[in-house]
TrEMBL record:
Organism for this UniProt entry: Lachnellula hyalina
Gene3D superfamilies associated with the record: 3.50.50.100
Pfam families linked: Pyr_redox_2 (PF07992)
Domain FAD/NAD(P)-binding per the UniProt entry, residue ranges: 6-306
Record keywords: Membrane, Transmembrane, Transmembrane helix
Transmembrane segments: 7-24
Coiled-coil region list: none
Keyword Transcription: no
GO cellular component, one term: cytoplasm
Domain of life: Eukaryota
Protein name per the record: Oxidoreductase
Amino acid sequence: MSAPHEILVLGGNFGGIGLVHYLFKITIPSLQKLDPTKTFHITLVTPNTDLFFKIGSPRALINDKLIPESKILRPLSEGFSKYKPEQFTLAQALATSHDASKRTVTITPVGSETTKELLYNSLFIATGTTSSSPLWTFHPDPALTSAAFKSLHASLPAAKTVLIAGGGAVGIETAGEIATFFPSIKVTLLSGAAQLLPNQSPVLGPRAQAYLETHAKVEVIHNLRVYGSDISETGTTMTLSDGSTKTTDLYIDATGGKANTEFLKADWLDGTKRVLTRDAYFRVKGNGSDDVEGVYVLGDVVAGSANSAMALDGQTPTVASAFAVDFARKVIGVEAGEKKNPGLLGGLVGLVFGKKDAAPSLVEFKPMKDTIVVPIGPHGGVGLVMGWRFPSFFISKVKGKSFLLELVDPLLTGDKWKA
Ligand SMILES: Cc1cc2nc3c(=O)[nH]c(=O)nc-3n(C[C@H](O)[C@H](O)[C@H](O)COP(=O)(O)OP(=O)(O)OC[C@H]3O[C@@H](n4cnc5c(N)ncnc54)[C@H](O)[C@@H]3O)c2cc1C
Ligand SMILES: *[C@@H]1O[C@H](CO)[C@@H](O)[C@H](O)[C@H]1NC(C)=O
């Protein structure tokens, strides 16, 4: 047997966790059917040791009873301990630089200054984004996320005013939760744009605003952004984009995140610092002359991504199929969909069992367009399915009641993928 093919996965949350399981469960067995002598090793580089189910954050920030922290922060070991060390390594580290020509990634372990270079044969980038508040994404120090929840649990019961910046789904959901569970708090939402949900179908924002105002008594203010904040004994004083100031007991930043791509060269990235792709199978584009063979990207860090966990359900099989096709061509020597020269015995087996030894084919990515569910409190909200209006009671059934917590186990264990 030759040395294992080294697959490096950067980022271990929604995209990275799902991908590692998909590769072990579906892609690698299919390649080994084609050539049983091939072995694989996956290294997952990520600073966190827990899965963070951030979809549950808007409710989990209310208190530790509605959604206990242990339900949205779950040890990665629960999902990965089934893989043997010769198959899988978890490196608790940040990727800090990348050398395309040497095919290496330099990593910096959490809490350390010493770096380490990892060689890869194939590379997947799934490093997502970092929001300014650790309530929505991990920060380089993953412990800050738990600390942020605990701090809000302690301060919300005494707060009289809460100001939330960000008119996207996260800001709207958070405003709805706080206003519902603390009806005495005056909640103000600064949208920063001309309407709520500016990146969605234009019918949705005004509906979200009407729901927030009538059902949750949230005040919505448009076209105003927070430029700075200053915390003192009497609360937080915000400086706003119109030059005015506003004082609030609590300030929650729910504006979007920045792509985690500091370790990549700028000529691989778009204007939002997300990774450019060269085709519809999430192969990385590079700068035109760098070695990007076997380099892929998935999740929120993809240029033009929908920034949704739902997109990963389709993207993961697609990007894994690109890897499988590339591996079959380069390492095994067969083209997509083609049969490996079977030899006499293999040919007979093929005749009996069908195209078991056919090389992998590319899987198309067909995202669900115009689909979004935004609960506003436990009883309703707004949403669209393929552009159609989602009735409010249905929003509550689908997401508002339990914040999709039923998705945690299948993601963590890999059970969501059926071989
Ligand atoms: C409040 C909230 C509600 C949401 N609701 C929904 C919803 O209802 N439906 C839906 O489809 N989507 C929803 N989303 C979006 C969804 O959570 C994201 O699209 C999804 O998490 C993206 O996955 P990802 O793997 O790309 O990024 P992430 O899940 O952010 O994972 C990125 C990982 O990379 C790690 N990392 C960062 N930098 C580095 C580095 N340099 N080296 C190594 N690792 C690194 C991070 O620590 C993290 O583990 C919601 C998001 C939020 C915040
Ligand atoms: C791509 O980047 C490499 C390394 O930085 C550089 O040598 C090369 O000239 C770049 N190619 C293009 C087309 O810009």
